Every structure is written in C-alpha cells, then in structure tokens.
Amino acid sequence: MTTVEDATALLHPPVKRSILDRPRSTTGAWSWFTTVDHKKIAIMYGATAMFFFLVGGIEALMIRLQLAQPNGTILSAARYNEFFTMHGTTMVFLMGMPLAAAFGNYFLPLMIGARDVAFPRLNMFGYWVFLLGGAFIYSSFVLGGAPDGGWFGYAPLTSTPMSQGFLPGRGADFWAVGLIMLGIGSVATAVNFIVTALNMRAPGMTMMKMPVFVWMMLVVAFLTLFAMPPLTAALIQVFMDRNFHTNFFNAAAGGDPLLYQNLFWIFGHPEVYILILPGMAIVSEILPVFSRKPLFGYSVVVFSGIAIGFLGWGVWAHHMFATGIGPIATSAFSLSTMLIAIPTGVKIFNWLATVWGGSVRLRTPMLFALGFIAQFTIGGLSGVLHSIVPADTQQTDTYFVVAHFHYVLFGGLVFAIFGGIYYWYPKIFGKLLNEKLGKLNFWLMVIGFNLTFFPMHFLGMEGEPRRTYTYPNGMGWGTLNLMATIGAFIIAAGVAVFLVNVIFTAIRGERAPEDPWDARTLEWLTSSPPPEYNFAEIPVVTARDEFWHRKYTEDDEGRLVKLPPSDASRIPARHDPSEPHGIHMPSPSYWPFVVALGLPIIGYGFVFKLWWLLAIGVVILLFGINAWTSEPATEETH
Amino acid sequence: MLDRMQRLRRGAVTAVGMAAAVVVLASCGATGPRNHQNTIHPAGPAAQKILNLFTPFFWVAVVIGAAVVGMTIFIAIRFREKPGEERNPVQTHGNVVLEVSWTIIPFLILAVMAVPTVATIFNLAKIPHGRDVVHVEVDARQWFWQYVYTDKDTGFYTANEMHIPINHPIELTLKSNNVIHSFWVPELAGKKDVVPGHTNNLEIEASHPGVFTGQCAEYCGLSHANMRLRVVAQTQSDYDAWVAQQKTPLAPSKVVEFTKDISAKWGCLSCHSVTNLTSNIGVTIGPNLTHVADREAFAGDIYQMTQSNLAKWVYNAPARKPAGPLKGWMPDFSAEGMTMPQAQQIAHFLLCETATRPTAHPECR
User: Fold this and answer.
1) Which of A111, A214, A625, B18 has its CA 20 to 30 A from that of A395?
2) Which residues numbered 279-298 in A keep a CB inside 8 Å of some CB on B?
3) Is the pLDDT of residue B11 over 70?
4) Is there a single domain that holds both residue B187 and residue B72?
C-alpha cells in the first residue's frame, strides 16, 4: 500500500550522502574544476589550445632552424622526427580541434539564445579528456620517447612491434592511445553541439535563421561524430599489432598496410573540413559586421557548407594517389576532389560579394578575415592542382603539399581564429584588445606566413621531400629554406605581439562598450562578459541577424536606416535574483573530471602493460560514471 | 599632407607589396636549380607528360588566385570607411544570377581539366611490353634500394645506383619486406609507393644520357632522409659495357681473401654478398658488395665513394647514418674492437678490389 509519505519521499528523495559533497560554488579557483558553464569551459578550451599552439609553434621553429641550411645539426634525426610528428599531432588535435570547440562552446549557445549546451556535464568531460589526453601524449617525452611515426602514423612503420626497432621508443603507443582518448572527448563534444543546435534554439529561430557560424559548427559536429570511429578502429589495430602480435597490417601474415591508409583517410579527409569549417564559420560572422551588410547569399553559403560536409566523405583516396590503387580508383577520386572545389569556390565568391559595396571598417578582426580569404584561396587552388593525379604523383609528400595545407590551415584556419579572438575578445573579457598591436600582429603574421610557406611550393617542385631531417649541399634548396626559416620567426614575432597585447589589455585595457562593433547576432544582446545564465530573458527571434534588425531596418531602396533605440535593442540589465521566476542553471559537478581522470590511467596501463594500473583506471572510470549518472543535472537548492 | 595613420598604412602596404615581390621573384629565380631532381626539368616521357598536363592548369590557377587576392585587396581599399564616416550601404542579400554563374563557371573549368587528367592517368598506367623493355625489380630496404635486373641478358643485382639505357622503357616492379617507401626520380617520372604485400609497377624512361637523382618519398623511419638513389642513363653501348661489368664475378681469390681475412672476423657476409648473379643469389640484408666501388656513392647514396668515407662507415656506421634500434642493422664495429687502421684496410679492399677499373679511384693507384 502506498502511503502519502512514500509519495512525498519519491518526489523529494532525501539528499544522498556521497564521498564528495556536490560542489556549489561557481566562483573561485576550485570552481574551474567543477564548472559546467559553457563559457568557462570555452575559456579553458581556448587557453589550453593556445598553450598547445605555442608548444607546436616552438616545435615548428626548431624544425625550421634545422632546415635553414643543408646538413643542419640543430636536431638529431630522432628528435627531428619526434618534432615533426608532434607538431602535426599538436596542431591538428590539440590546437585546431579544441579551438573550434572553444569558439563553438562559447558562441553556439549564445548565438541561438540558449542558456547552456544540452549536456553541460558531458561538455566538461570533453574538456578534461582533451587536457588530460594532451598531457598524456606529451608525457611521452619523459616516459620513453615521443611519437615519431608522423601525425598520420602509417602502418606498418607504427604498427610493427617495438622489438623490431622500426621506430625508436614507445612513441607510437602513446600516440595511438592518446588519440583514441582525444577522440572520445571530440565525439562527446560533437554530440553536445548537435543536440544543442537542433533542440535549444530560442523561440522563432528556425534553422534558416541560425547564424552561419552555428550552421558550420553543426556540420563540423556531424563530421566529427562520424570521422572519429574509423580513426579509433585503425588506432586500436595499430596498438594491437604493436603489442599483442595481431596482424592487421602485417603483410607477411596476410595483413594489409593499405587498410590502415583507407581507415586513416576516411577520418583524415573529413578532418580537414573539421578544421577549416570553423574558420569559415568565424569569417562568415566577421565579414558582414565589418562591412555593415548581411552575408551575401546566406542560403547558398549554408548549403555549400553542407555540401562540403557530404563531399568530404568521398575524397579520402586522393591522399593515396601514389599507393598503386589503380587508374579507375584514382580517376574517380580525382573527379570527386575537383567537385569539392565548387562549393568551396562559391563560399569565397559570396564572401567577396558580402564585402563589395559595404562600408568596410578595416579593424583587426576584418584584416584577419580578409587575409583568410586571400590565403585560403591560394591553398584551395593548389589543392585543386593536386586533383590532377599525374601531377600529384610529383607533388605528394613534397614541400609543395606542405605549402598547400599550411595555406589552408595556417593562412586559413589560424588567421580566422586570430580574427575571431580579436572580434569576440570584448564579449568574453569585456575589454577590447589594443588595435595598434592588433594591426602589428596581423601584418607580422601576413608577411611571416607568406615568406615561410610561399617558397615551399617551389621547393616541392624542385624535388625536396617532406619529413626529411636533412638535405645535402648542392641541391639548390638552401636559399628558399633559409627564407622559410626567417619567415617562421616573423610569424613567431607576430604571435609574441599577440601575447603582449593580451597582457597589455589585461593590465591597461579599457572596458569595452557593450556593442563595440555594431554587431548582428544574439551573443551581443547580453552584457559582456555574459552572466552565467546568458540571457535574463530568452530573446524571441524574428529575423536572421536578430540583434541587427533590432537596431536597423531597410528603406525601399534597400538602404540601411537606423531605428530609434528601443527596449528590444538595449542590452538588458542583469537578472534580479529576488525575482520569483528563478533561472535554473545546471549545478557544478566533480564527476566528469573523475571519469576523464580514469582515461589516462587506463592509457598508461596499456602503454606499459601494467594491468593493475589499468584496473585502477577502470575502477575510477566506472565509479565516476556511476556517481555522474546518479546525481541530478540540477541540484535542488532547498 | 597625409596624417600619421595614413602614412603608417601606406608604409605597411608598401612593405607587404615589396616583401611579396621579393618572395615571388626569389622563388621564380630559384625554380631552376639543375639539381638532377627537379620536376620542372623532365628528362623522360613520363615526367614530360606530367609537366605538360600540369603547366596550363598551373597558370589557370595562378590567374584565378591573383584575381581573387587582387579583388580582396581592391575591395578592402575601395570600400573602406574613412575615419569618422558612417555610410549606410545598400543591404544586398544575394543575387541568383551571380551565384549560379560562379557555381557553373568553376564547374566548366574543372570539367575541362578532368578530361586530359583522366586520359593521362590511364596513359601512364599502361604496362609496357616488347623486347626493348628492361625489367628491374626494386626492393626497398631500411634505408637503401636494391635493384634486381631480371631479364635474361642481365640477371644480376646491385644497390642504390641504377643504370638504364636511354630511350628504353624500364619497367620497375616495386617490392618491400619492411615498411612503406616511395620510389621517386622526379626528372624521369612521378613517385610510386612501395607497399609491403603489394607489388606496384612504375615505368621510367630517360630521353638523354645523364644522372638523375631521387629519394624515398614516404616517411620510413629514422633515416628516411638518407635513403637516396641515382639513376644513370646511358647510351646503349655504355649501358651494355656496364652490364658486362656487373656480370663479371669477383676473382675467386678476392672472394676467398674477403671471406677469410675480413668477413671471418667481422661477419660482413652474414648480411652482404660478394656474388651478385641472380642465378646464385646470396644474402641481401645489406647492399651487395660485388662491385660496390663502381658506384658513385654508398650508404643510400649519401656518401661519396672514397676510401676515407668507406673507412669511417665500416668503423662506425650508426654514427654516420642514424638507425636507432633497428634490428639487424650495420653495427658499430668500433665498439666490437675494430681499430681505424683495420677499417682503412677493409675500405681499401672494398674500394680497390671490387672496382672494375681500380685506377678510377686515386687511392688505388
């Protein structure tokens, strides 16, 4: 028989005692370990990724020093191979993807008028997995040798047991296990972004009213969700071949090294778009704001992004044109690679048309966005040239390819990221970065970048292969390599100016106005930095570029007309906590951190074959998951 | 008079323009080093076909790139807001005609590009047949190349330095028993990977005599950079003379001398062989030594063939070419008690007793 008491107990279960009481504080140092606030998590993602950007940059500088002259002696072959492997691994997995996660985390919810992501604790888990995964991979430098099989880790070089000595050290083990771990975090974040974008939009925000940024992050999330599993499968096979004498990639026992390449590039090519689409997303927000015009052909830009997302799955074998897959396969992948250039070109033309006829304010974010267009175009065009398969058999694995993808990923992605940082800095920290230093930052990076990577096109044509720690005298490569090295240090100076700018702004920077750029999207419809709950009242959306349309309208000839200031365009005051309809925000939690902590312990257990350590990791993981799933998302505050 | 900001801006633009000019000019000036490894200087039909296909589309790309970059700069300057100005531009949301045309035009350009691309792919994939075809099996090792001449009139094997007759198609069969490598001689043909478990084919041909260098183009471990090679293209008579040299075995007394005096002590012949006929194939772990002194360079084509280089190599190879813990690689004999004079003696033997014409080496005169 059910009593009234029982029913009450069901509705209000007594507060369970756990080993750790649930954290409540949302301020202070400790709160950064327990926060589920998407904005705090975004800042942690950004800061950590920028740290790894510096580390990967130092590796690049060491590589450039070694190659500045023929027969360089700065680095040993072993160290060089570790550095180019870790430079690539760092910039792809520890800089590029996490920075996209940082921007997505901060602005995706704000731009759709949401108070947080769909799964705040999963979000936190993703960050900690990223940080611990990165630390795990880097710990290899002191625990038996850093990864040295290339960021692409081709089998059987990486998959042959360590006893054969194909690669010195345990690097490949750390690399495989570390990337599996990072993949778990990426998938968690991807799921979160997808559900958030699809389910948590403010009233009135239809899909075709979403900012392009949100659209592109949604495409990126889908790509991530489907791209990580084949990589994970390949990495597990590498690890099994290396440690448990399986023969997935061992040709002598019937395995196939090309299986690895197919799996890796089915991940690896969508990965290129996982990296570049966030750059396109950022640029698509900056250009309209600094041109005072809406994005030209919104729906075409959105559909091009989706088309890139789909076509990106059908081009992976263009990384394998020299492997002997035969003329039919190479022809097919050649054609699909040409096709993907079309939506990419459409985007470029639409961006240019956005700026055309605008009132262009050449502030630092805009300079970076324009730099993105110019440099990304060059990288895109050299990419199209790679689809000419016979020519690709000359260019692949040479410095021509190094030039190509740095034009896309540095000239493109990194420029977009810097533009995004300058653009949103006042939103995140309430202060504007210094404009003069910003411009110096930009020009140093433009000059340094082009000086570094433009000559590499020629080095590749002249026969210099990638991933070689030295080259002999008399090849005629010395001058261009020296230019590239000088350029790399100019880039470094640009990055140093950026760091000075951040420090300068922290000390001397003035408070930014609430809407410093006359912006268009919803994240500017709240104070800077936004309160924990983002919006005191969820905005009702009636137009694309909602915030802009609360400030402006168009006359009959399409000219801009400023509306008189109204309540709708005003940044609302902070929420009054005494107001009866309280805002329920998800509560902080320890458990995602604990679950994430289990992963590197399991990883070390695998790498060193310490089964007891692995068991400890599994226990921590399961304990954390159990505690996580048995605590409510939002703790009632009685 | 220009105000300070404008001057600064102009200065910056000029500086960037000049830097760009320097980069472009320096790069163009440097496109032509005659380094025997330059894709822009093809010396055979395959490399020539590739360059012919690439060049027109390269220039199309240059024009499009220059147009987009130029347009970006032009728009930025033309439509920039002057200080204090606040324009209210026309709010264009799109233009169907424009957007359709910049979808269709690239499509047409790419369609034009696709036709010769696919045609050349199939053209280059053809396997040559006929009596004038020379067949060579290429075995990629860590980190050198072994060449097995498999035709009836050849039937020997050598390493790193491949001799070919000009104007003959050379059909290479690419094999690896270790990791993936890539065979690449840029002036003769594009690269082709050497994949364990797969037998790939690559046709090369030289149109004129000359030395064409190349190197492994797929990362293959510690000494990937030290896995170089050269192809020596010769007239038919020179090539025939070389074949005859290769087929001449070492004098039995020399083989005995090497076996008893050197290998017995240091174990050279457990990895290397001093017979090179395919009818009597020996160990092929290290490069074949039968006529090693006839090659211009050794150790993956990285050291010139001199007695001093050979001695240093024999004395402590891992110090001259990083190999890390690779199993079965050339050991550091200095650690096994070899003295430099002993190394010199071995080097002298290798240089002067394996050479077809010892007088070619000043150390042997």
Assistant:
1) B18
2) 291-294, 296-298
3) no
4) yes
Q: What does the pLDDT read at residue A560?
A: 85
* DSSP reduced 3-state for A214: helix
Last residue of one domain, picked from the residues B194, B220, B247: B247
The answer to the question of residue B108 being in a domain is no
Looking at the structure, tell me whether residues B163 and B218 fall in a common domain: yes
pLDDT at A206: 96
d(CA A426, CA A423): 7
Alpha helices by DSSP H, listed for A90-119, are 97-111
Domain that holds residue B45: 36-79+127-247
Record: contact B39-A385, CB cut-off 8 A:
no
Model pTM?
0.94
Is there a single domain that holds both residue B63 and residue B172?
A: yes
Q: Are residues B259 and B339 in the same domain?
A: yes
Question: B216, B247, B278 — which closes off a domain?
Answer: B247
Name the residue ranges covered by the structural domains of chain A: 39-535, 587-605+614-638
* B39 contacts A381? CB cut-off 8 A: no
Inter-chain touch A335–B216, beta carbons under 8 Å: no
Residues in chain A: 638
Q: Which residues pair with B174 in a beta bridge?
A: B138, B200
* Residue B87 forms part of a structural domain: no
Nearest to A360 among B80, B107, B190 (CB): B80
Same domain, B210 and B300: no
| Strands B200-204 and B144-149, sheet pairing | unpaired
Q: Which residue of A has its CA nearest to B17?
A: A447
Indicate if B200 and B187 belong to the same structural domain.
yes
Q: Which two tokens stand for residue B213?
A: 């260098």
Q: A109: phi > 0 → left, psi -120 to 50 → alpha, else beta; which?
A: alpha
**Residue B26 binned pLDDT confidence (cut-offs 50, 70, 90):** low
CATH class of A39-535: mainly alpha
Q: What is the CA radius of gyration of chain B?
A: 28
To 10 degrees, what angle do helices A415-429 and A38-67 make?
Answer: 150
Instruction: Report the residue from A163, A293, A370 with minimal CB separation from B76.
Output: A370
Asked if the structure places residue B110 within a domain, the reply is no
Q: Which two tokens stand for residue B360?
A: 């070619």
- The crossing angle, in degrees rounded to 10, of helices A415-429 and A364-386 is 150
Q: Mark whether B189 and B321 lie in a shared domain.
A: no
ipTM attached to this prediction:
0.92
> What is the distance between the alpha carbons of residues A155 and A323, in angstroms, rounded to a whole number?
13
Q: Does A208 touch chain B (CB under 8 A)?
A: no
Shared domain for B352 and B215, answered yes or no, is no
Position B7 pLDDT exceeds 60: yes
Question: b vs e for A612-624, b when ≥16 Cβ sit within 10 Å of the residue's Cβ?
Answer: ebbebbeebbeeb
CA distance B144 to chain A (A): 14
State yes or no: pLDDT of A581 exceeds 70.
no
